[in-house]
Amino acid sequence: QVQLVESGGGLVQPGGSLRLSCAASGFTFSLYTMSWYRRAPGKERELVASVTSTGVRTNYADSVKGRFTISRDNAKNTVYLQMNSLKPEDTAVYYCHAVNSMGYWGQGTQVTVSS
């Protein structure tokens, strides 16, 4: 059974940091490109960051470049999103996504940036 379980969300003040984790199981994690998406209230889901299967290449939305870092540990079947200098506009539900021949989604974790 495929599972993507996100954790690490919460409430943080502007300028603060959070680290999201996504633990994967049920598929060959090391063969999949992993991504983080987010959906803010009233907005469409958007790609935040992605990392290739080997971790060599990463891609970021312009809105998070220089503030967020995606990484993965294939030995632990886990992908991370380090979020620094958080802004209120980063408030959203963050979703983990895995893609190769198939695509899988996690259930999401809420990130709220507010004073």
Q: What is this entry, summarized?
A:
Helix content is 0%, strand content 52%. It has 115 residues and is mostly beta strands. Strands 2, 4, 5, 6, 9, 10 and 11 form a seven-stranded mixed β-sheet that branches. Strands 1-3-8-7 form a four-stranded antiparallel β-sheet, with no helix packed on it.
Mean pLDDT: 97
Helix content: under 10%
Query: How would you characterize the largest beta sheet?
Result: 7 strands, mixed
Number of strands: 11
Structural class: mainly beta
What does it look like?
The chain is mostly beta strands. It contains no helices and 11 strands. The chain is globular, with a radius of gyration of 13 Å. The mean pLDDT is 97.
Topology summary:
Layout: E1 3-7, E2 10-12, E3 18-25, E4 33-39, E5 46-51, E6 58-60, E7 68-73, E8 78-83, E9 92-99, E10 103-105, E11 109-113
Parallel strand pairs: 2-11
Antiparallel strand pairs: 1-3, 3-8, 4-5, 4-9, 5-6, 7-8, 9-10, 9-11
Q: What keywords describe this structure?
A:
115 residues; mainly beta; seven-stranded mixed sheet; four-stranded antiparallel sheet; 11 strands; 52% strand; globular
